[in-house]
Give the backbone structure.
Amino acid sequence: MDNRFSDIINLIQQARNNAVRAVNTELINLYWNVGAYIKQKLSVADWGDKAVDELALFIQRNNPELKGFSRAGLYRMVQFYETYTQTKFVAPMVRQIQNNENQSDEIVSPTVRQFQFQPQDIKNTLLAELSWTHHLTIFSRCKTEEEREFYLRMAIKEKYTKRELDRQISASLFERVMLGNAKISSLPRELNTDITNPFKDSYVFEFLNLPEPHSESDLQKGLIKQMKNFILELGRDFIFIDEEYKVQVGNRDFYIDLLFYHRDLQCLVAFELKADEFQPEHLGQLNFYLEALDRNAKKKHENPSIGVLLCKDKENEVVEYALSRSLSPALVSEYQTQLPDKKLLQQKLHEIFENSDTEQQTNNEQF
């Protein structure tokens, strides 16, 4: 491209992107209000299912160019409204509109009061930042408010495509992150990130199609070959630097399996791969690499390097003992080569929440 015209091209591209976002925002706002209108009509018994069928047919006959307003499409808009109308990032706005409606009704005689719909503006909420296909995926596959909000924020932060969002839900990202937050003790709390810790207690590499058993070399080559999917599992703030990254200590050369840089944390992140169960001695090797990185590779403005020991399996109590005396910012995670059992993870998460509630209740009784 001729550099003389690059600024103009950038302006055009930015304007087109802004236009696409504006159209999406209006579309999400429209679907919300269509869903709210139909829901309110059904709630006051003005309409029944037949009326919704007739509406879909009316739109099809009179405005055939409008897509997405079939009977199923209209009920998805109702579901969209029902799903989020009580959520903390939408409910205050809805309550304000309802209060205004109630105040208006007070000056209207009950004999003349009729159904009046007050459009709602959700353009400044999280919902307007995602496409309709993203929303269909989230509210059709996620069962709790916490899970839905998690994927809303993650999809916005990580800029997931619809396919990537589907994969993350199938890989039980929500459950794994919640379980990881409960298991990993000191490191994530020090990192103080907004949505989720940049590190997980477990990673899923179903895209590698690795045989069982497999070697560390097989794992490393597979991750390098599938780097795009690997970054999706890690998070987009991870920038790949090199494989077999060489650090020199004295007259000897040592090689780190995979080295990344994390943009938000502003530090180097070393991944050491182990195709077997975690052993305490693995941590000594990782700590040695982190010391070498901090002395020889880290820049002055960067934070201390972080290490991730990625093992095929681990015993949590052994990991806890090994990390208790470690002074380096390191953690031990396990990886899976198949999609996890979502129901099993949900059960484990439920047990952790129950235990936490029991401990809290006991503490309250003591005081």
Strands lie at 202-204, 238-249, 252-262, 267-277, 306-313, 330-336. The two ends are 71 Å apart (CA to CA). Residues 107-113, 185-194 have pLDDT under 50 and may be disordered. DSSP finds 14 helices and six strands in the chain.
